[in-house]
Amino acid sequence: MQEILEQILWDKCGGLIPAIAQDHKTQEVLMLGFMDKEALELSLKSGFVHYYSRSKRRIWKKGEQSGHAQKIISLALDCDKDSILISVEQQGVACHTGEKSCFFNIINTKEGKLDSNMESKINFNASAVYGVVDVLYHTLLERKGADPKTSYTAKLYCKGENTIAKKIVEEAAELGFAIKDNTREEIIYEAADLLYHSLVGLAYKDISPDLVKQEILRRFGLSGIDEKNARVD
Question: Residue 177 has what pLDDT?
């Protein structure tokens, strides 16, 4: 195993190599992820693909939440030894949108644009790898490079943390008033607004909602009073 790890030119690619997952039966390209040395080592030891998440900054096993794991059939290094092709037995689907493959946006080469039937296709399937919160978070990260004239999220980023923080406070207040005075539908609407703006704040600071989930999990079994007291100096 060490021999395999040492063959890869890790320094050439900043410690992360592109890892392409391919269905071993159909030869369909399923997804592109990244691996550091530890992720590849865990993959080789376990027989299941592990990736390194650049947004969450941690190693994750494919399917750790959804069950859509990738069993390794074979691996191959490219000629430059800085990327890897993994032939896998895919359990469930590969894409976090619920699609079988991440490469479902078909480009019309004649017109130079996405096929109109695929352009806005996102399936927020409950069994997807992450779920709607994580899908939204990654969409918000992508909006960092968008035009503020056409994207509300990009406009918030451009205005900076003071504006983002102000919007979160405003939405929290509106949710509070809705809980006090309004209907169930209005409460849900305001809660969605607060969640969206909170995720914009997290994305602005590059903090994955997965870290928030981990903090919530840490608090399970801990008295709320004890947890609050532990934070008091």
Answer: 96
